[in-house]
Amino acid sequence: MTAKERFLEIYNEKITREGADKLLDFLLNGSDFFTAPASTRYHGAHEGGLVEHSLNVYDCLADMAERLKERYGIEYTDESIAIAALLHDICKVNFYKTSYRNVKDETGRWQSVPYYTIEDTLPYGHGEKSAYIVSAYMRLTRDEAFAIRYHMGFSGTEDPGNVGRALEMFPLAYATCCADMEAAFLVEGKLAGENK
142-149 vs 78-87: helix axis angle to the nearest 10? Predict the structure, then answer.
């Protein structure tokens, strides 16, 4: 099963609220979600990296949600978990563009190689842009909105006091932040190769 097929299967099974079909239509027909990278140089910096990263966050968040339930009695619906994980980085659709630069190959000859650049046509931050885009199609619960908004945790540029309060007040935000880091650094990143 391809990453796109798995994403569609989870999305269609778990996300059923009003507007979900319109959001999915946008992802399929109005965006590059299934071919976009997840970053320019780091995790998922290749075609299809964004959908792969979203699925990795889903897997990590599902595990984390089980721990929250078992240890703390905090429970979220499968729909909320799918929304937070699969859509946390929707801000990256139609965001990366392919450009070319010259690089010397191993023989010393110059070669034109592709790389990703950023073309931000909606400069609205990161997590807040994802929450904004999703909200244009379907209503988010407060937990989902905060999970998407604060999934970057303390690595963003916002007031650390706000981040800390959001992660404390909304455990789904904390769990999504942890799942995002686990996916980026352990599942996909440089550490992934060292941990196999």
Answer: 30
Q: pLDDT of 63-116, one tens digit each?
A: 999 999 999 999 999 999 999 999 999 999 987 787 788 888 888 888 887 767
Number of domains in the chain: 1
**Measured distance CA(23)–CA(136) in Å, rounded:** 8
What is the per-residue pLDDT for 196?
47
Range of the domain at 93: 3-194
The span from the CA of 178 to the CA of 29, in Å, is 31
Q: What is the DSSP string of 4-27?
A: HHHHHHHHHHH--STTHHHHHHHH
**CA dist., res. 177 & res. 85, Å (int):** 10
Burial of 141 (0-12, 13-18, 19+ CB in 10 A): middle
